[in-house]
Amino acid sequence: MGLPQRLILTLLSIYLYSATVVNTQQEFKIQSVELIIEPRNDVTAGTNVTLRCHATVSTSTGKGLIREYTILKNDKIVYTKTIGSSEDFVYQLHNARVFSTGLYQCKLDIQGDTKLSKAQRLNVQGLSQPVLHLNTNVVNEGEEVQATCIAPGEIGSFIFFFFDNDEQISRVEGLSNQAKTTFRLSGADIHKIHCSYKIRTAEDTFPSTKSNNVTVSVKELSITPELKIFPDSTIYEGDHLNISCSAKNVHSSSEGYKLFLSQGTKLLRTGNSTINHNMVAVPKASEALTFDCRVVVRNVEKYSEKKISVVELFSVPSLTMSPTEVFQGQIMTLTCNSDGFASQRINREDLEYTLYPSKNLPSSGKPGVFNVKALQNDFNYTCSAEAKGIKKDSKTLMIRPKVHVSALKISIEDKVILKKSFTILCQSNGSLPINYTLFKDNVQVGTKVIREQNRQAVFMDVINEPGERQYRCEAKNSLHSNKTGSSQHLSVNVIVPLSQMTLAVIPSSLKISEGKELNFICSVNGTGPVTFKWYRTGSVVPLQTNTTTETYSNLEIKPVSKNDSDEYYCEASNGANKVRSENVNVQVFMAPWKKGLIVVACLLLLLLLVLLLVASMLNIKSKRDRREAAAELSVRSVFL
């Protein structure tokens, strides 16, 4: 290193050190940072764009500060630079392209203190027209063509598309503004090739216009496939088919090719020369048989296709049963039958039917007709029809033998009260659905159909006249049989509500002497059993409770006493209702002999009182006489 270079480095070090010392000594404040896009935010492709970063910074000394500017696009750093002046920082976008579109910001950093500008959007519009180049304009069928698509002047993330007569044939992605691809063209025709591209940004995708068209002529190969099928007239099921697949117009023995013979999606044979294939014609449901012969040479594929219809020799048999419903142990008829057959090849008598399983089946004497006894559980049958070595099976027939109704029961859920509805239940075992019929005194009342397991048939009825009624249920679950199940007769006694209640008292006089007998007789209209209860007013505990089949009952009190004086009433109930009598006021008086005894006692007491009074008076008089005699004696002694 020479002296001038060392001197420059020394001076630069001194300057940077001085600037650092100055920066550490002065205070500053970043007031604002603003990003300006010049000449404007919306420009066309190719415009030179300037991103100007203007910052306002206040300092304590007014001297310059070391500033670090960063340009961001869509939050990603694009460019960073450190400067020592306070002038605006400028970032140039020369020849701006669509890929330059985005949100830009400017960030200022001074000694770790940062400030970010508001985002400014730059919109660049207009993509250049792509240019297409091909390596040739004339090719043989099957040869490769190399194409190059260029997006002049563009940058970014590209997707290139190549088209043959507006049909996309290739797609290439990359970061380069040009893409290459190869493809093959088939068929003797004129092909117009063009390309286009798209540029992807963080926010959107921008498509270009179409490129120039390049015309390519394709020379078709003369080789063609040939497909032959014998017989070529009406083909019946079971006929032997001879199919051949070959190539025609093969002019050069050095030209290699390969043949492929297929039926639908099934590959039958392949080969490098004529292919022969033998098979038995089997019809396909409602479709013709499709055969395909293909020849492949030099990546060129050509094919010939033929469709043939195969007449069914006889139709797939169907297995049916009669009757359509069957019960356990019942004899039924199973019929195996092919509805259609080719009368040109076979007669109906040529068809042989077999039932599976076929153990110990009684003969019916008719082809395809079998007599079978239904088992106790579910079972399956199939049958087959066979003629001229061709055998066809029917679909499986699953037979579910039904169970006759049994154990039919009838019951009543509610109390049967005159002129009120009540519920009658019928239930039985057996296969569903079950039809129930209710009879009252052998007259049909109604019907119900039960279609769910463990469900009862529910009937509602009303009895409007007193007396006994007979109910029964019948159940049936066969459409083709009159066999029914019948329940036992259910006798129903209707409960007549109680009414017209009376309460009689014996003796009829409500005033009774102690020691007598007192009888209450309570009677009602209605049906028993009836429960009678007697009460004294003010008490909730009955004096007596009695249940009887009669419509009357009595309460006896003997002997009565004055404590039995009170109001009495009677209640009666029979399950339909409850009635109460009027209150009866009973008064119990003292017995006559008690009254006489009281009179005698009173007289004796009065007599005793009189005697005591007389005795008292006599005693008083005696005392007075004695006092008078004593006084007289005293006077006499004085005078003496």
Automatic annotation (TrEMBL):
GO cellular component: external side of plasma membrane
Protein name in UniProt: Ig-like domain-containing protein
A GO molecular function held by the record: transmembrane signaling receptor activity
Organism, as annotated: Astatotilapia calliptera
PROSITE patterns recorded: IG_LIKE
Signal peptide residues on this chain, from the entry's feature table: 1-24
Keywords assigned: Disulfide bond, Membrane, Signal, Transmembrane, Transmembrane helix
Transmembrane segments: 597-618
